[in-house]
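We store amino acids, tokens; thus:
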Amino acid sequence: MHDKSTKNLTKDVKTIGEVDNLVVKRIGGGSIIDHRPLFSTDGEILYVVWKQVIRAYSTRTGDFVREFEPTDNKIAGIVFHPDNSDHIVGCTETGHLVYWNSENGLIIKNLDLQIHPVDKIRSFHIIHYKNYKGKNIRQTLISFNIKANKTIQLILFDIDTGENIKSTCIEQISPNYHIDIIGNHGDNLIALVQDVDLHIFSPARNLFNKIHKIGFGGRKFTCVTGHPEEECVATGDSSGRVAVWKNLFHNHPVYGSYHWHTLPVTEIAFSRSGGQMYTGGNECVLVKWVLANPHNKSFLPRLPAPIKYLTLAPDNLYVAVSTLDNGIIVVDPQKKLTAVIQNFTWGVSTAQKDLFPAGLTLDPRTGSLVLNSRTGHVQFFDVRTKSLLYNIHITAQNLLTQVPNAVIVNTEVTKIALNNDGSWMATVEERDDKISSPEIRLKYWKFDAKNQKFTLNTAIELPHDVGVNALVFQPTVTLDGEHPLAVTVGKDKKFKVWNLAETNSIEQPVKHWQCYALGMYRDLPACDAGFSIDGSILGVSFGSSLTIWTAETINLKNSLTHSRYSQNITRVEFGKHEICHLVVVASSEHIAVWNLLTLNMTWSVPLKLSTLTADPNSTYMAAFTTNNTLFIFTPQSSKPVYIRKNILDAGSVVLAASFVPNIQEKRISESKNWLRKSQLFFLDSNQELLTLEPESETSVLLENLTTSGSLPATAFSSMISVKTITNVERKTSFFHEQFNAAKKSVVEELLTVSAHTLPPMRMLCGPFILSLRAQNVPKAKVQEEKLSSPINEIQHSEDDSDDEDKSPPLFKNVLEDEVQETKEDDENEMNPNLVSYDWNFLASVIPTIEIS
């Protein structure tokens, strides 16, 4: 690099990485099925472990009730205290006992177990038994792996002091093992399975170990559950068989076989009396057995995903079914659905499936993010309320479960796009098992305002051969939005333009989507497409070339190529607002910016790009690299305005990102100006939705604390508190938002006068309507009220002087009519007055900031 450039880079390092008070915050995702949930004593509340916190949900409605005070580390498991049902006891993965009050969610006690530091505690239980003196003992049982000597450690601790009482270890012969507690009339036993071994430990006999083996070729234990009353245990194996074992301390125990599942059994649960048994596996079917008669069984089929945990409420009121799509379904003993607990849906991943192949898409109508959900579905997730709005079944196909020794491929949604007012949604679904012909469908969905849902309008089979690389809507140019356009870019080296046409019919005309234009360029692979902000220009990348087309006539105007870069351009993003004449192109090795007015490359930087996204409300863009570095920049300058290294933990990668407009502009420092109008959200490989926020905004949520220091007792009280706060905030505005008329004197006078003293309504209506006429309010006062009103803060007046809010200049006719092809063989042909900053160098000298 030139000396001048290096000097400038060193000079600008301080301005980029001087102070970074932004923290990474989890908005959605995170597993609620890592650990078994816990029912309240009356069965009306289900407690769910969500990393460092416990969340309470209603089992009747599935509504969120409260969130408990968080711990410092992830929770490994929770149970009720055996002597006090008002206390929930949890153990963190680092060996720290935490006691919560189940009524208000506050931590009432912390206790450190006397244990050397461990990598991760795998299981946590509380057991009870009688010692040789006949005294009832309550102790804590934990288990963990020691990788150095490949052993599984089991340790008992005093539940009140954390003292290490006794321990034992066994050789670890399998990476996975499963532990549960057996009832046995007051003296608990411990059951552990791994590979083909069943271990039975007796705490009353100093953790005496009795080993049983399956003895059948090829079968391995996959789960274990202890009977609540008897000296009995049920195990599942890889062949789909469930075995119920009795006489556990005999050399030849007795067992009965229950075999319906064809895939490995993942979970077993006994009823409270032990007379019935529930089992589940990868078939997505819940099976209910009568122990006395293996032929007497019933089924709950077509669950949304394979079963991971089964949890029964006291008195068998409910069964909580934790499924691998990160959801919990609550059913009654008659197997009728009562509630679904699911805030962020996961797709069930397999070795041949990508997570979230459709990425993140903004829904302009609701301000929510649209992304892949369970197989064949898409979900609308509200980032402001952190809640799932709804799922849409796109493929309308039943989930095909797996079979032994084969991989069954389901149809998955691979592309999602919405137009700029959210009235149309387009999806692409694909299925390719590499054996039969690939299935590819393009579907257009119309939003039904009356029923508040998307309805299928058009389905097109095989819009492109092999597959689709990109799907994008044209920004609506006309006010009525009656002539929308969409573009698909296929793996068949072509792009197609689709429009909404009207069918000629004697009956009522029907509008549907059809292809009216097709384009290709020099037999090069087509990768991505994008529209200018006014919708007049279409940019399509073919190989390493950016081609420019008129959107109305689909005529090729220019082809822009630089000899320095030979990689395929995988992203095309037009600048917004006053820089709409700039186009950002990106490959796996670089980012570059073309000027459509001069047909020159303005700047470029080498970069291992992973994800690129643009803010619809400003000129800023975000680029994530493969080494988890974030760059925020504007196309008019190669100097990034913000750099963040190690935005994710090691081993995680960013899968997709999107900006979501803020409800109102944030008042933030100039250095964080890119957060003023929109907020950046991104998905990682742990299936979590994350964002960057100023540290001052990451305080405890309002729903967690009240003025009395306790938590809201119910979901209704949480709603009331939020509503009360909202009303207080809006009380400062005394002007009618629509008419700019004073409303305090009009409305409040009517509400404060006793009803029996009011004159007839016919005498009130006229003066009331006349009072809402526009009044001569000073302009300065109107502007002041707009600033104070949360509603008006998101509305921009015509006199707004902010450059980013001005209508972008149309450059529809700027380009020449004849086709031009620009080749820049020398990098010095770029703008010589603009320094091209080395982003990798800038990132290397920015201090590393820990993720909060």
